[in-house]
Design a protein that fits this description.
The chain contains 15 helices and three strands. The protein has a three-stranded mixed sheet. It is globular. The N terminus is likely disordered.
């Protein structure tokens, strides 16, 4: 069985990392310094948000305010990643706002039911719809990490409590403050708090006050990805019914992407700004609609078509094996050496280098 599964993983990796794909990715790399839309307009200081009844009030259903939550996280964690690149580019939290920015730019945060003008240019462009599957899933990768950071002390001693405003619908599917989230979803809060506490612990280990990056990046990434994957696993069944508002191709892509995160996270893949920018170039530039058929979506690049095919293949293979494919991959990624090889497989998507896939797989198993 292990041999068959090994061959299946090798087949999937081969499909994903074909020479045509890797060469094209190399030719289309971006500069790596692109920020989410409206990044400059988002607040980075929590005290810039409105204060009402001695509470910092944040509307997480407004794109710019949710972006401000991310920006405050990036700013307050900057010093811990100083050893990993200038201008905070090496901060592994960049993956969260960059992914959210891609969702905004491609229209995935707007009301897909068409009942309201939420998220549309002729309505409230900055509105994030509670009917958007992407917006609801992202809530668990924005508000929960943020409140975990508040609880861990990343922002120091805040003069006020933090309150997150509820959406107009599905209020019971979300939480709205540190105490509320701890009572409703303690596992998620605990995992995100553990990540930020790990960063904070480096202050006590630093040789010089200005040097905080005394941790192993692999350890930090491991804690972050654990919390990330746990958040998605918790939110997926909760918002399964929201997929009905999407086209079949878009709904399939959303589930394919969620499945792929488990495989990517197992490698402790770095989510710094340049790396994430490079890879997001090959995600769909718009929402998929009925009639979009892979691998021949005309207004998508060949590389974007190939990535979507690869994600679909990986998801189908994992379902076909009852999840054993993921378990085998996680087993192969259980050592630092294995994770390094796993990351190299992913990173070579942006390289024209010819891969010895058979040799790599033999090393992994």
């Amino acid at each position: 069985m292990w041999s068959c599964l090994g061959q299946l993983i090798l087949l999937i990796v081969t499909l994903t990392l074909s020479p045509v794909t890797t060469t094209a990715w190399s030719e289309n790399k971006v500069t790596g310094e692109e920020y989410p839309p409206l990044w400059d307009l988002a607040s980075e200081n929590l005290l810039d948000f409105p204060v009402k009844d001695n509470k910092i009030v944040i509307n997480a259903w407004n794109y710019q305010e949710r972006l401000g939550v991310y920006k405050s996280l990036l700013k307050s964690s900057d010093k811990y990643f100083s050893a990993f690149g200038p201008q905070n580019f090496g901060n592994v939290l960049w993956g969260l706002p960059l992914q959210h920015g891609w969702q905004f730019r491609t229209g995935r945060l707007a009301d897909p039911s068409g009942v309201t003008s939420c998220g549309y240019e002729d309505g409230d462009l900055l509105c994030q719809s509670v009917r958007s599957w992407w917006s609801c899933m992202n809530y668990y990768l924005a508000v929960i990490p943020f409140l975990g950071a508040v609880e861990a002390g990343l922002f120091g001693q805040l003069p006020f409590e933090v309150e997150i405003l509820p959406p107009e619908e599905r209020k019971d599917d979300f939480c709205y403050g540190v105490a509320d989230c701890w009572s409703r979803m303690p596992k998620l809060m605990d995992d995100w708090k553990a990540f930020f506490e790990y960063l904070l612990s480096t202050e006590h280990k630093a040789v010089r006050p200005e040097t905080f990056s005394s941790f192993k990046l692999d350890d930090a990434l491991g804690l972050m990805w654990k919390a990330h994957v746990t958040s998605i696993a918790y939110a997926l069944p909760k918002f399964q019914d929201s997929l009905k508002y999407l086209s079949h191709p878009e709904a399939d892509f959303g589930e394919d992407w969620s499945n792929a995160v488990d495989f990517i996270g197992a490698t402790h893949f770095s989510t710094d700004l340049p790396t994430v920018n490079d890879f997001q170039t090959f995600l769909p530039p718009r929402m998929l609609v009925e009639g979009d058929v892979l691998p021949s979506i005309r207004d998508f690049s060949p590389q974007q078509n190939k990535v979507l095919v690869s994600l679909s293949t990986l998801h189908k293979a994992n379902k076909l094996t009852g999840g054993l494919l993921l378990k085998l991959w996680q087993k192969a990624m259980s050592t630092e050496a294995g994770r390094k090889m796993g990351r190299e497989l992913i990173e070579n998507l942006t390289s024209s280098q010819k891969l010895d896939l058979v040799g790599i797989w033999k090393e992994l198993i």
